[in-house]
Every structure is written in C-alpha cells, then in structure tokens.
Amino acid sequence: MTDFTRTRRAFHLPQGITYLDGNSLGPMPVAARDRVAGMMRDEWSELLITGWNKAGWYAQPRRVGDRLARLIGAGPGEVVMGDTLSIKVFQAVSAARAMRPDRRVILSDSGNFPSDLYVAQGLARAVGAELRVVAPEEVAEAIDHIGADLAVLMITEVDYRTGRRHDMAALTARAHRAGALTVWDLAHSAGAVDVDLTGADADFAVGCTYKYLNGGPGAPAFIWIHPRHADAAQPILQGWMGHAEPFAFDLDYRPAPGIERMRVGTPPVIAMTALDAALDVWDEVSLADLRARSIQLTEAFIAGVEANCPGLVLNSPRDPALRGSQVGFRHPQGYAVMQALIAEGVIGDFRAPDVLRFGFAPLYNDLEDVNRSVDILARILREGSWDRENFHQKAAVT
C-alpha cells in the first residue's frame, strides 16, 4: 500500500497554496535542492571535465532512463533521456515512418498537443508524407479507412485539454493489423496513470518529465523503443552522442546499438540530477495505487463542482476509465475565472478557448485540496469576483 502522506511530504508545497497544475509543471521535490547543490559543489566544482567519467555524467541518460522505465511499463536498457520532447517526437516519428517507406500517411488526432502536430507537419513536408488529423473518437475508424497507406499512428495517450484517455492497447493492435507502427506521447500519462507500453505492444513512446514526474522546468524528455525495433530504428536526427563511438570522431554516422542511438546532444547534467532526485519519490509507489487515488480525487472534484458551480460545463469524460488524471470545465470567461482562482491560492491553468484545467497529482494532492478548491471556485462564481479588469488581461503564459 502506497503511503501518500509520505509522498506529499517529499514536495515543497508553498503555504496557503492548493496546487492543481502538476500537469503543466510539478512542484519541487524537497530532495532536489540539496541534490543539485551537491552535484554543483562536489562534482562540477571539483571534478571539472573529469566528471563525465568520475561522476558518471556520460552514462546518466541511460541510468535515469532505467529508473523511469518501471513507470511506463518498459524494461532495463529500453529508455534514454535527453533533449526536448519535440526532438524526441521527431526522432520517433521519423524512425517509424522510415521503417514503412512505401506508406505515406501519418495519422494523429485533433486532441494531440499542437507541438506534436507541428513536428509531424514539418517531417511530412520534408519526406513527402502526409499528416492526416481526425477527431479523437474517429481514430480507430480512420486506421481502417487509410489501411495499407498508413505508416505511423502518432497519438498522445491523454488529451491535454479534455483529459480523454485513448485505449493504447486497442489502438496499437488496430494499427498493427493495418501494418502500421505506433508512436505514443506520454506527456500527460507518465506519473499520472498506469502506463504499460510492453503490455500494449507499442512500438515507440516519448514523454516529458517536468509534469507529473516533477523534474523541474525544462527537465529532459525520454524516448522508448520496443526491443524488436531497437537495432532497426534509424532516426533522421542523428547526433554525436548517438554514434557507436562518439570519441572516435568519425565523419560518418554509425548508430549506437539499441536505444543509445536515440541520444542526440550533450546531456543536461544539472537538470537530470534534479530529475534523478524526483524519481526517488517513486521507489515505493504502486502504479495501481496511483491510479486508484487519481480516480478518487477526480471523481470527488467533478461531483463537488457540479453540485456547487452550476455555471460550469464538464469538458472531460465522465467515465474515469476514459480519463487521465486531469479534469476540465468550460466557462465563457474561463481565463478570468482561473486568474481569480489563482489570486485566491488555487493554481490551475487555462486552455483556449474556454477551459479551466485542473491536474490532480496523486503523490501530493488529497481530498482537502479538492474540497478547498471547490469551495473557493463556487464562491468566486457566486460573487462574480472574477469579473475584474486585471483578471481579463492575458499574460504570455496561460
């Protein structure tokens, strides 16, 4: 049984704040401050460049990847860290498409995060492919309709705006029957729900670590390849660290074996040290317990809002089996309402055009957070205190 009281204590949560935005940026793990300070004091300061060998910086992307693997249903040696999520999306989709050279279509859905679609649009233009985007509920039918021309199914498992969760195993099986490969983005899944890439027989997966994994702003992304593809996948973006012998300084690229070929640039050692500290919290966490607590929190929040905030409309699936660990509600003045909430110490976020989005992170959110946020939201709506000029002025980051 996971001790969620213990995991909550592992995070710095500012006094007076109810934090429901871990699906955008997780709070700081208490251990991260000292871990990063120690790395800078004992490794960077004293070891200088010898830290790549003596402190294990060079091997850090695989070592940290192995720690993360359990949380996504992957095995040792199958995950590597580094770069940004957009880069990992490009690597995964380009490698998958190259493995189906006679097929033209990359299929995604309109609930995918726009950045993934931008990456796929650019790739499709460069290689003479076509990106086709359908509504989330139309993906299965589109796989069958495209059939033998489908190269890659590129899907974010949990919709960033609605929290709708795709059935990874079912869609992967359907894509495989059509002869296509799958790329799953786990940005809103890893650390939030019970992901099982191996059990779903997925082909490629990517994700970020600054949301539910609490690695810090700009924390490095990860990439996974099913072992059956690991020595065949050839990404278009080939970097120095993914070479079979980086320090031979060959002029021609030779891919490293397995997942190591998906390394690109120099690993961000300071950021990865913070992430390594964040992953300590997960050592005694059961994913089944995590999922059960997520459902408990989101169900309680939906019930509370619908009972006390009649002006809001649910923008997430009502069935928890079809939902990730976030809940959205719609309001015509959603941005202003969210700013009023933040001013009262309840931090969620806004997604255009009208969605108030609330992320529930089982490691540190509890029912007290649910009740407080519902009470304050209801009062703001009842009193109309959101309708102030400063709450309508949009900041650069919403």
UniProtKB/TrEMBL annotation:
E.C. number: 3.7.1.3
SUPFAM superfamilies documented for this protein: PLP-dependent transferases (SSF53383)
Annotated catalysed reactions: L-kynurenine + H2O = anthranilate + L-alanine + H(+); 3-hydroxy-L-kynurenine + H2O = 3-hydroxyanthranilate + L-alanine + H(+)
Residues that coordinate or bind pyridoxal 5'-phosphate: L85, S86, F113, P114, S115, D116, T156, D185, H188, Y210, W240, T266
Gene Ontology biological process terms from the UniProt entry: anthranilate metabolic process; L-kynurenine catabolic process; L-tryptophan catabolic process to kynurenine; NAD+ biosynthetic process; quinolinate biosynthetic process
GO CC field: cytoplasm
Cofactors named for this entry: pyridoxal 5'-phosphate
Pathway assigned in UniProt: Cofactor biosynthesis; NAD(+) biosynthesis; quinolinate from L-kynurenine: step 2/3; Amino-acid degradation; L-kynurenine degradation; L-alanine and anthranilate from L-kynurenine: step 1/1
Function, in words: Catalyzes the cleavage of L-kynurenine (L-Kyn) and L-3-hydroxykynurenine (L-3OHKyn) into anthranilic acid (AA) and 3-hydroxyanthranilic acid (3-OHAA), respectively.
Family: Belongs to the kynureninase family.
Protein name, UniProt field: Kynureninase
Lineage, highest ranks first: Bacteria, Pseudomonadati, Pseudomonadota, Alphaproteobacteria, Rhodobacterales
